[in-house]
Amino acid sequence: MSVLRIGHINLRVLDMDEAVNHYEKVLGMDVTHRDDEGNVYLKGWDEWDKYSVILSQAEKAGMNHIAYKVNADTDLDAYKQSIQDYGIEVEELPAGSLPAVGRMLKFNLPSGHEMRLYAEKEFVGTAVGSVNPDPWPDGLHGCGVHWLDHALLMCELNPETGVNKVAESTNFMIDVLGFYLVEQVMVGPDGDIQAATWLSCSNTPHDIAFVGGPVMGLHHCAFFLDSWDDVLKAADVMSKNRVKIDVTPQRHGITRGYTIYFFDPSGNRNETFGGLGYLAQPDRPVTTWTEDELGTGIFYHTRELVESFTTVYT
Amino acid sequence: MSVLRIGHINLRVLDMDEAVNHYEKVLGMDVTHRDDEGNVYLKGWDEWDKYSVILSQAEKAGMNHIAYKVNADTDLDAYKQSIQDYGIEVEELPAGSLPAVGRMLKFNLPSGHEMRLYAEKEFVGTAVGSVNPDPWPDGLHGCGVHWLDHALLMCELNPETGVNKVAESTNFMIDVLGFYLVEQVMVGPDGDIQAATWLSCSNTPHDIAFVGGPVMGLHHCAFFLDSWDDVLKAADVMSKNRVKIDVTPQRHGITRGYTIYFFDPSGNRNETFGGLGYLAQPDRPVTTWTEDELGTGIFYHTRELVESFTTVYT
Amino acid sequence: MSVLRIGHINLRVLDMDEAVNHYEKVLGMDVTHRDDEGNVYLKGWDEWDKYSVILSQAEKAGMNHIAYKVNADTDLDAYKQSIQDYGIEVEELPAGSLPAVGRMLKFNLPSGHEMRLYAEKEFVGTAVGSVNPDPWPDGLHGCGVHWLDHALLMCELNPETGVNKVAESTNFMIDVLGFYLVEQVMVGPDGDIQAATWLSCSNTPHDIAFVGGPVMGLHHCAFFLDSWDDVLKAADVMSKNRVKIDVTPQRHGITRGYTIYFFDPSGNRNETFGGLGYLAQPDRPVTTWTEDELGTGIFYHTRELVESFTTVYT
Amino acid sequence: MSVLRIGHINLRVLDMDEAVNHYEKVLGMDVTHRDDEGNVYLKGWDEWDKYSVILSQAEKAGMNHIAYKVNADTDLDAYKQSIQDYGIEVEELPAGSLPAVGRMLKFNLPSGHEMRLYAEKEFVGTAVGSVNPDPWPDGLHGCGVHWLDHALLMCELNPETGVNKVAESTNFMIDVLGFYLVEQVMVGPDGDIQAATWLSCSNTPHDIAFVGGPVMGLHHCAFFLDSWDDVLKAADVMSKNRVKIDVTPQRHGITRGYTIYFFDPSGNRNETFGGLGYLAQPDRPVTTWTEDELGTGIFYHTRELVESFTTVYT
User: What sections of the protein cross the membrane (chains A, B, C, D) (predicted)?
Assistant: First the structure.
C-alpha cells in the first residue's frame, strides 16, 4: 500500500469571486466544477484528476482539510486499520461525499489538521492529452501552475511544555502512511527538538511539511512551476494583478527550490515552487538544518527569517 | 520490495585516459576509485553512493552491464525468486565482486542486456553534505552533471519476424521488477507494435527506456541537469572541449526534457537531460506516440528523426 | 548625423494569408495597417513606430527593400550628398510614398540590395506605453518577438574573379553611413578575403550583416527575444505551428547570440535572436573568425556549417 | 564628439584586503594593477580596457570619482570648452595621472559628484580575445560579472527649498555631454518635480542615473550579468560568501532589469544588473513614473520602496 501524492486541499475563503479570480487568473488554474453549496473546484493544466483545490466560502480563512490519493482502493482498508492501531480515530465517508471522489478516510493528524485519503477521483486528463501531446497547452494563462505540489502545516510547538506536534505528526506520516523524512530543522540547546520537517511519499523533496509555531494552522500550499524563469514570470503576473507578495523570488536552502510566497485575497499563503531541487530517495541521507542556520535553510539568499514567516498564517 | 533507481552503468571505452578526461572534464564527474584491473569509477557531485559510472578498457565500445539499486538487501532474495520464476537465469555475485558494492543479482534482460541488482553501495555523501548544505558545491566543473539519470537500451525489433525485444523487456520490467509504463511509441499498420517504451520505478519520466532497432546495444546513458540554461552551458562546454555533438539542445516531445546527445571519445552516446519534464505517477495515463508523430516525440523542434538516432549506437 | 536602427523590411510573400498568419500567430507581431494594394504592415509589441515589417504579395519570395531610420530629417540631406559623393545614385521619395513614413532616400548598396533611409514614421507607442509601464504586455502571443533586430544580406563573392560585394557593402556602410565593424570572417589562402561582416550603428553586435555567396539575396531577417528561455518557448511555438525550422536553438559564436533559423511559408528565412550577446562599442576590438573556425563562428555548438546556410535563401 | 560609456569608478574602502576579496571572489573581477599608494585596479572578464574599478583605502566609504570614456582625444578639447561654457570649472589632468590612462578632464557635476572624462586607457583585451573567441572564458569565478554597467548617484533634492540637483545634473548630462533621457520619476503635487532620472549615451537603458535624497552620495554601482539565471547564480554566490544582500533578485519596473542590491564590506552598495531590458533610443519616448507608482518602478514585484533604498548609501 502506498500514498501517491497530495490530491487536493480545501481552502476557506472570505469572498468567493475574488478567490476564484485569484486561482484562475493569477495562478492560472481552471474551474472544473461548482457544487450546490457554492464550493468551487479547480485544477492545474498538468493534472489529470478532476480537481486539486476546493474553495469554500467561510468567515475565516484557512484550510478545512488536506487529502492524499492512495494507489488502490484496497489500500484504504489497510490504512484504516493502521491509523486506528496508531490510536487515531478514523471515519469512512462514502463515495460521493465529495464530488467525483470515491470513498474517503477522514481523520486528524496528531497536530489536529484534518486529513483525508482516497483512491478514486474522476479522471479528466491533462490539458495536453495523452496522445502525441505538446509539452504545454495553448491558452496558458496567469502563472500557468502545473499542479498542487505540497502544503506546509503549522503545528503547535512549545519547548517549555514539551508539546511538539511537528515531531508527532512526522512520526505518524512515517510510521503509518509510509512517508520518509527528507529534511528537518533541529533546534534547542541540545539540537534535539525537531522544529520542522519535510516528508516525501515520492521522489520530490516534500509532499507534506510541518513547522512549529504557537497554534496549528495552514502555513501555505504550493503550486509547481518548472523553472526560475517561470518564477520570474509568475512574480510579474502577480505584480500586474496587485497580488500581495510576502517573499519575492528566492531560493530555499531547504529543498533547493525557487519560491515566491504570496497571499490569496482571503489571506491564505500560496507558494509557487519552481525547480526539481533534487531527487529525493529513501536512502538519501536526511538533510539537517541547525538552529543557527535556520534562516539560511528557509531563505537561502537573505539567510534570515522574515517575521511574517512564523507569525502570519491561516 | 522495490527498485530505487539506476545505480551505475559499466561502459567499455577504447582509450582510458581520453575517457576519464571526458567524464571528468566535460561531464564534470569525479573519479572516486580505480581498481587493479584499471577500471575507473566516477560519481556526480549530487550522488551519495560511491560511483555511478564504471569505465572499462575494451576493444569495442558499449555497455557491459547496467545496475539498479533496490531498497533493501532482503529484496534481492525476493527478486531472485521472481526473476527465476519468470524463466530467466539469475546468478548471485558475492559482496565485493564490484568494489564497494554488496551482493548482486546478475541476469540478462529478454533483450540480452546484462542487468544487475544490488542493495548496498558504500556511502560517500554528496559534494554539499547533509548539514546546512549549499544548493551546489564550490568547484563545479565542466557540465556539472548531478547524477546518472537513465539509459536507453536498443533492443532487437523485427516486425517481419515478429521479434520484439522492446515489448518483452518492457513486460519483464513491469511484471518482475515493478516498474510502470510512462510513455510508448506504437507503430505498424495497426499501431499495435510497441517500438519504444519509457519506464519508471520512481516519479521521473524514465528510469530506463527501450527502443527497437536491428541489433541490441546501448543507445545512450543520460546525466541530469537542472534547467534549459544548464543545457546551454553544457553545450558551450562541449564546444570548448571539441566534443562531437549528435543533437544540439532541443526539447524531447517524449518526457518534455531538454536534451543534448553527444559522444564520448569511444563513441558511446551520452545525453545531458535537463528539466523535470513532469512528475510521473502510476495513475498518470500512459502517453502514446503514433508512428506519424514519432519524430515529434523524439525531437520536438525538428519533428523528424535524424538518421543517426537509429543507426549509430554501441 | 547618425543612423538609429533598422526601421523596417519589405518582404515578398507568395500567399498573403499564410504570411500574415505566420508573422502574427507564430512570431507574435500585430497588423497595424493594410494598404489598398494589399500590402500588410506589422509591428512587434516593443516597437513604438508604426511598423517594422511590410509584406507584399509577389511571385517570388525575397526582400524588396530594407530601411533604416536616421536621427533627424536634416540628416537625410547630408546622407543624400555623401551617398552621391560615394558614387551611388540616390532617389528621394516624397513623404507618404510609404504609409506613415516621411520622405525617404532610396538607393542600392554596392551589393545591389535596395536600401532606404527615413527620419519620420508615425509614432504609435509600445504595447506597454510610457507611463508606469509593465515590463511586458498582457495578450502576448506566439513567440512574442520584441522588435525587428537586423538582417543578413547575401552578397556576391567570387574569389576567382575578385568580386567581393561583402567588402564593398561593408565599406559603404562604414564610410558613408557611419556604421562600425564588429565582427568579420576572413578566408582565402592569405586570410585576406572578407567573406562576412557584422556591423553596428548602435551598441548591439549587428544592425546589419553581409555574407558572401553565389548571388545576392536575403539570407534572413531577425527578431529579438530576451533570453535563452524565450528561445526555447519560441521553438515550442514553432513546433506547435508546424513551422519549418532550419537550425534549432543554438548559440552563435559570432555575436554570442541564441538563434533559431526557420522559414516563413514563402521560404524567407527568419531568425529569433536572443540575448544581448555583448555591448558593441566603436573601441571594442573587431572580432575576427578565421576560415578553419568559420563553422564555429556561425554555429558554436555543432562547430560546422549546415549546407543550407549558404545555399538556401531568397 | 560623444561619450562612449562609463569607464571606471573609484571607490573608497575601509579594509583593502576585504574589498579586494569581495570584488575578486564574489563579483568575479580580476586585479590588473596595484599602484604605489596601495590602490587596487580591477576589470571584468568582458572588458578590454585595463580597469573599471579602482579601490582606494579611506576612512569613509563612498565614491571618489566616476569616469566616462569619450570617443576620441579631440573630443576632450570640445568637452572642456562646453563644460566651461556651461559655467562649470574644469581641470585638465595630464596623461598618467591615473595609471594607464591618458589626459583627463576633471570637474564636478551640479550635484557635486566628481566626474572625469578621458579618451585613452591601456587596452588589454577581454578574457576570450578577439580571434575565434569562446562566448565565455574558462576560469570564470564568483558572479562572473561582465563589466561595470552604470552608477546611480544620490543628489540633493529638497522640494521645500527648491533645490533639485537631480534636475540640474540631468540637464548638464543632456545639454553638455550629449546623453539623452530614458526614464524619469516625477513627484510633487503637480507631478513636476524630477526626482530621479535614467540617462543613456548608448543604447542601454542607463549609463548613469540620479536619484534625489537628503545629501549627495553614491547610491550604487552596477555590474552586468546576462540573464535572470545568472542573477540566481550570483545570489547563490553571495550567500555562500555571506554577503549582505539589501534586495534579493527582483525585477526593476524602471529599465525592466533584473537586480540584486548588496553591499561590499565597506558598505558601498553594489548591484548585479541582468538582462538588456530594452534597446534605448533617442526617439523612444521617455518613460515616466508617477509618484504613486514609484515603488513599482523601483521594485516591480513588491511594488513598494524599502526604507534602505533612500536612507542607506555612501
Answer: none
